[in-house]
Amino acid sequence: MPYVNTKTILDKANKEFYAIPALNINNLEFLQAIIEAGIEERSPIIVETSEGAIKYAGNGDIQRGARFFVEMVRGYADSLDIPVALHLDHGKTFSVIMATITAGYGSVMIDASEFPFEKNLSETRKIVEIAHSVGISVEAELGKLVGIEDNVNVKEEDAVLVDPEEAERFVKESGVDFLAPAIGTSHGAFKFKGKAELDFDRLRAVKDSTGIPLVLHGASSVPNDIVELAEKFGADFKGAKGVPEDILKQTVDFGINKVNTDTDLRMAFIAGLRETLAEKPSEFDPRKYFKKPKEYVKDLIKQRMRTLGCSGKA
Ligand code: PGH
Ligand code: CA
Ligand code: ZN
Predict the structure, then answer these.
(1) Domains with residue ranges and CATH for the chain
(2) d(Cα 171, Cα 95) in Å, to the nearest integer?
(3) Is the CB of 50 under 6 A from ligand 1?
């Protein structure tokens, strides 16, 4: 049960009321940490890459980057007995979406959420037609999240929460497999100035009207112990704040099945890297200074899998 279509994993989660963290990677070390966590928790795994990650991995060549990730993830998945899926996160460029479909990704996100509803719908429908014709599932987004999206800053005044009635029509007319409704989260490490609050009523209404697997973007919790550890070794993450673990759990109760997580992995990795560099100044073997970062990333993911209820579901 190695490399699978993302829909297989998410349809089961939807039916059985749990969620899977969808974990962003840019390189080998994050994948290794994710795989280890999945094995130890017996959880299904969803790995995702942004367009930026694909460009990075391909050294500027998107075909090469997409193929690289498919080979790497499938190479690991083939030797496992837990399901592993590879997903394109925030696909915005037709050529990148096509490169991932051709390379063998299990699902793609078409993020046309910055456009007006009708254009978002038509762009999404176009990708659904192409992807479904080759058995690949599709995620789309409704409403707009604030924060950094692959280095583009979406301003607070431009944020819009999802409209549940629009969501129903959007899902029906686009044929999309998974939907990301904007309910108050944002990307990055600085999500809330005051209290962390999400619009659960809106989330519940979207679930009731669509019934499909729902995706929470901007779902990192930015754990205090990680922030403190990184700051102890010289980082400056002043004001960092994420979605508290108990709120994440509540989103699952209201219908979230895929929990997009990038910032937390980056922060755990950097905390471990800073610690190692500070404590072992004479070390120059990268495999050794990646050891602690990978451990911290793995531990964070294992904890998240328990919170979301996917441990033991593989
Ligand atoms: C995310 C990740 N990726 O699509 O939504 O969000 O910045 O909260 O990890 P975070
Ligand atoms: Ca978006
Ligand atoms: Zn996102």
Answers:
(1) 6-308 (3.20.20.70)
(2) 24
(3) no
